Amino acid sequence: MPTVRYRYRFYPNAKQRQMLARQFGCVRYVYNWALALKRDAFRERAEKIGYAETDKRLTALKREPDHAWLRDVSSVPLQQALRHLDKAYTAFFRGAARFPRFKAKKHRQSATYTRQGFSLRDSGVPGQPVVKLAKMSTPLKIRWSRPLPSAPSSLTVVQEPDGKYYISFVVEVDYQPLPKTKREVGIDLGLKDVVVTSDGWRSGNPKHLKRALDRLAREQRKLARKQKGSRNWHKQRRKVAKLHAKVRNQRTDFLHQVSTRLVRRYDAVYVESLNVKGMVKNHSLARAISDAGWSAFVGMLSYKANLYCKQLVQINRWYPSSKTCSDCSYTMETLPLGVRAWVCPRCEAEHDRDVNAARNIQAVGQTVAERSFGKACGDGVRPALALVSGGDCR
Prior knowledge:
- The chain is of the alpha+beta class.
- The chain has nine helices and 14 strands.
């Protein structure tokens, strides 16, 4: 069965908040200490230090009188911090992520517990166990928005910059495949409409960040006028963080609705693999691109396709989908971004720029999918530059 995360908000009391603050601080310290250790060892002695060595040195560090305070919190999240750092290094050397950075107190704080670090007790309500963390004498007050489908293998407690606490459980869920619709669709990602499909449907673009910019600017100016580190400064910082969290939650909710709609209505979804990291270097469009949330949207499509036995195909980003005629395959030499509709010089077909791109993406994606599963030879498409996720689950 696939594993997913179930996230809930919880409300710690004063003693639990103090304990969590110490746990977060120790996790942050151990992560930064291990990162500096690994970095310096490689720079100075060309020595590579793995998880086993950092775990051994952490045990010795906790025995030192100056670091005795590390023994006052649960050791499980400290070991998990070392594992997370090891994964970050692996991802960096694989080329899938940037070099690990030091953790800061002002950002999101988290601590991960495996089964050795927390206990579950039956509360009498199915799917709503009593959860108690190691080194805590009282259970957490969790707001159960939905029951847990299974016993969690691990959990992560999080404090967001706005001061709210969340707990995330890793559970197994037996998802049932969605009914087959025998329909396929290509989608074009854009700024005027986040999603335009090959059959002409447009999602629109709520532009949550743009609508909140004026209020954000006012609150950030208030923050700049306050003495850094003062009580009023912290209050205002949380207010700014709450506004950012609201924008983020609105965007996430919108993307979930659109991605779920597509996965329910179509058996296969074809999309272009965009280089969002490179595109946001254009300072004229960076804010609008970030507000659209293309990367998060494709990520949602990918995991939902896997869960519900649908298929997602990402084609090569260099394919000229916008300036290729979807009727006769004629390719325009240039097509400026300001041109939203055009007429093919060869077949005189009238095209909406976005719908035409979505149709081309679907056609190429179908060829890529067939080549990936060995059904056809393909036509001018390199499957090595495409990603196929999900499947029939037969």
